[in-house]
Hints:
The structure is a single chain. The strands form 3 sheets. The chain has a 3-stranded antiparallel beta sheet. Residues 174-187 have low confidence and may be disordered. It is an alpha+beta fold. The protein folds into 2 domains: 3-74, Arc Repressor Mutant, subunit A (Orthogonal Bundle); 83-185, Winged helix-like DNA-binding domain superfamily/Winged helix DNA-binding domain (Arc Repressor Mutant, subunit A, Orthogonal Bundle). The protein starts with a helix and ends with a strand. It has helices spanning 3-16, 23-30, 34-50, 73-80, 90-102, 107-114, 119-127, 150-155; strands spanning 21-22, 55-60, 63-68, 105-106, 131-136, 144-148, 180-181, 184-185.
Amino acid sequence: MKEPERTAIIEALLFALAEPIEAEKISEVVGCEVGEAVSAIEKLKTKLERENRGIRILKLAGRYQMSTADEFKEYVEKALDNRRNTPLSQAALEVLSIIAYNQPVSRSFIDRIRGVDSSSSVSNLLSKDLITEAGRLDLPGRPVSFKTTDTFLRCFGLSDLTQLPPVHQENLEFSDASSTEGGEETV
């Protein structure tokens, strides 16, 4: 298969898929080496940027996804007029930051940090696909835990969670000296 055809197939895959896809999966589908797939993706990414096209290719946690170019985002939002694009409340931002920095975490952990019930904010973040269920924790009652999604990374312009700004430890107050793992107390 010639390079232009491989690139066209990869462009079609990225366009058709609603979620990020690994280079390994792309190479498997296309029938080429992973390095060839990554090279084709990077060339396509550069071409789209150079030509100031309306779409871009994002790299999210080692996976690739096609997305609207930032400079055209407002037009797409107007066309969609979607409630999912409404700004997050202060409470939702607090909950999202707790999850992002401590994931996976249970709702009771979030409530304990905030000092108020967070179920409404958690539901709102789930509906906007900024967080998702991450399974159940090995704690009494086996509570559901939450983690951030690729949508969270894309919305905040991050490639992965290591790009989150550092938390200033001197500003944190801990109620006790219990050991924590993954944001949850262990007994």
